[in-house]
């Protein structure tokens, strides 16, 4: 029997507001433990929360970007649970009336199939503190308590780990581009819980689901879903009973493990938060938030394809981050060679960033510098090979391409008389290459070109050398 997975994701996103959701404490990552706290986020007696207006606006902005409808009249609720990282013994969140509902994200699989993944709801809530497990015991850092979150809950529309990864990748790209979160998974500002069950292919009946908590990388998410799918299929085939449970991913063992039985909604005893007023969103407020939404990554990709004529793959890669897309956009316009700009951004520039664990925002040179490099190559002043040397120096120093070329004497040799002499010497030293060429093996000229480039230390104009080689061979 063939089985399929039924997958839904719950994504927690820390918002990039300067202060927490119910108080004025800083949301800055890091800091001395328990230094970004106050009576409100520590839930001391007599303290009262006040909802941060920016949190509601960021939530609306995310919802509108994900094609959601906005509940213009909604409220906050209490979700009751006891855990050491929850200072109030309850979390202020949204239950029955979330801020956003019924949206979607379109993804495209590796097979070219476009699939729509429903976004069931987006609600705003507060984060909990952080537990630090040490040799002497468990410590609690409440700096993160009260940091604003949105929880984005998908419909169970994904059927493969690939689809789940594509959905999360596009979600992160959109949220980052609209500026509501930095989406740094390594710092916990984007975390994902995955719900998965299995069923026979063709069946409409849902299986028994397991929730895998706190996935903090795309690789971990995909590996965990693959493992969990196989585990559940094996259990069903053996006739074992599956139970609704919460599991964690063990990276070292590459397996999931049981944490606890899964809580149901009634376990949390939700009820309206009495210390906060109803959220009433006017049409004017909603429209003002709509006006702040920039061009989204998939819209930008479509424009790049249409405006610059680059391949779809290039456009998708270049729009994975706002910084990369904006850098490429400007470099393309200035260089008037969009494909060359794409090749440099996806090739040497990305390689240098990855090798040094940096982002486009860390680059020392500007789009105008990359455009200048492309223009130097297109004008025949330097070769593409020399361009690779130049971009390395640009990356290290931030100097302009022209300054580097002048400083290092990298201008191509375009002296036809001088190059003609070198070409003829190379041909004299390799008569067999001439014979191979005349017998139909056109690639034989490559050896001669290589000799000339070696003799000129790579400074000969490759196009001119090729022309002269072919010209002189024809005379012999």
TrEMBL record:
UniProt keywords, alphabetically: ATP-binding, Ligase, Nucleotide-binding, Protein biosynthesis, Transferase
Enzyme Commission identifier(s): 6.3.5.-
Cell membrane is among the record's keywords: no
Domain spans labelled Asn/Gln amidotransferase: 326-473
Catalytic activity: L-aspartyl-tRNA(Asn) + L-glutamine + ATP + H2O = L-asparaginyl-tRNA(Asn) + L-glutamate + ADP + phosphate + 2 H(+); L-glutamyl-tRNA(Gln) + L-glutamine + ATP + H2O = L-glutaminyl-tRNA(Gln) + L-glutamate + ADP + phosphate + H(+)
Name of the top EC class for this enzyme: ligase
Gene Ontology process terms (BP): glutaminyl-tRNAGln biosynthesis via transamidation; translation
InterPro entries named in the record: Asn/Gln-tRNA_amidoTrfase_suB/E, Asn/Gln-tRNA_Trfase_suB/E_cat, Asn/Gln_amidotransferase, Asn/Gln_tRNA_amidoTrase-B-like, GatB, GatB_C_1, GatB_Yqey_C_2, Gln-tRNA_amidoTrfase_suB_CS
SUPFAM superfamilies per record: GatB/YqeY motif, Glutamine synthetase/guanido kinase
GO MF assignments: asparaginyl-tRNA synthase (glutamine-hydrolyzing) activity; ATP binding; glutaminyl-tRNA synthase (glutamine-hydrolyzing) activity; transferase activity
Subunit structure: Heterotrimer of A, B and C subunits.
Recorded family membership: Belongs to the GatB/GatE family. GatB subfamily.
Cited function: Allows the formation of correctly charged Asn-tRNA(Asn) or Gln-tRNA(Gln) through the transamidation of misacylated Asp-tRNA(Asn) or Glu-tRNA(Gln) in organisms which lack either or both of asparaginyl-tRNA or glutaminyl-tRNA synthetases. The reaction takes place in the presence of glutamine and ATP through an activated phospho-Asp-tRNA(Asn) or phospho-Glu-tRNA(Gln).
Entry-linked NCBIfam families: gatB (TIGR00133), PRK05477.1-2 (NF004012), PRK05477.1-4 (NF004014)
Protein known as: Aspartyl/glutamyl-tRNA(Asn/Gln) amidotransferase subunit B
Gene this protein is translated from: gatB_1
């Amino acid at each position: 029997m063939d089985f399929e997975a039924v997958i839904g994701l719950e994504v927690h996103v820390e918002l990039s507001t300067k202060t927490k959701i119910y108080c004025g404490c800083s949301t800055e990552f890091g800091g001395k433990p328990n230094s970004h706290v106050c009576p409100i986020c520590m839930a001391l007696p007599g303290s009262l929360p006040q909802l941060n207006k920016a949190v509601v606006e960021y939530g609306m902005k995310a919802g509108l970007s994900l094609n959601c409808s906005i509940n213009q009249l909604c409220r906050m609720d209490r979700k009751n649970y006891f855990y050491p990282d929850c200072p109030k013994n309850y979390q202020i969140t949204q239950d029955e009336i979330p801020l956003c509902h019924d949206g979607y994200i379109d993804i495209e699989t590796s097979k070219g199939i476009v699939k729509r993944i429903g976004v069931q709801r987006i609600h705003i809530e507060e984060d909990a503190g952080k537990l630090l497990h040490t040799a002497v015991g468990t410590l609690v850092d409440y700096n993160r308590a009260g940091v604003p979150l949105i929880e984005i809950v998908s419909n169970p529309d994904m059927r493969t780990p690939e689809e789940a990864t594509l959905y999360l990748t596009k979600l992160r790209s959109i949220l980052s581009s609209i500026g509501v979160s930095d989406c740094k998974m390594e710092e916990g500002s984007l975390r994902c819980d995955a719900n998965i069950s299995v069923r026979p292919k063709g069946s409409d009946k849902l299986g028994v689901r397991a929730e895998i908590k706190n996935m903090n990388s795309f690789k971990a998410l995909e590996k965990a879903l693959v493992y969990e799918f196989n585990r559940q299929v094996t259990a069903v085939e053996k006739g074992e009973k599956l139970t609704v449970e919460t599991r964690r991913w063990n990276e070292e063992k590459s397996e999931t493990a049981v944490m606890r039985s899964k809580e149901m909604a009634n376990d949390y005893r939700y009820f309206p938060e009495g210390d906060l007023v109803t959220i009433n969103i006017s049409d004017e407020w909603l429209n003002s938030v709509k006006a702040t939404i920039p061009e989204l990554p998939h819209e930008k990709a479509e424009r790049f394809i249409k405006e610059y004529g680059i391949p779809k793959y290039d456009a998708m890669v270049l729009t994975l981050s706002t910084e990369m897309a904006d850098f490429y956009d400007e470099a393309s316009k200035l260089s008037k060679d969009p494909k060359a700009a794409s090749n440099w951004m996806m090739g040497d520039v990305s390689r240098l960033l990855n090798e040094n664990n940096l982002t486009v925002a860390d680059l020392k040179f500007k789009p105008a510098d990359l455009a200048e490099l492309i223009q130097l190559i297109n004008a025949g002043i330097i070769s593409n090979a020399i361009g690779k040397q130049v971009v390395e120096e640009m990356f290290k120093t931030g100097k302009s391409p022209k300054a580097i070329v002048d400083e290092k004497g990298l201008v191509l040799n375009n002296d036809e008389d001088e190059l003609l002499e070198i070409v003829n010497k190379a041909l004299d030293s390799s008569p067999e290459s001439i014979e191979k060429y005349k017998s139909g093996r056109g690639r034989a000229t490559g050896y001669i070109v290589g000799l000339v480039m070696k003799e000129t230390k790579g400074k000969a104009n490759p196009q001119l050398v090729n022309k002269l080689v072919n010209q002189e061979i024809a005379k012999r």
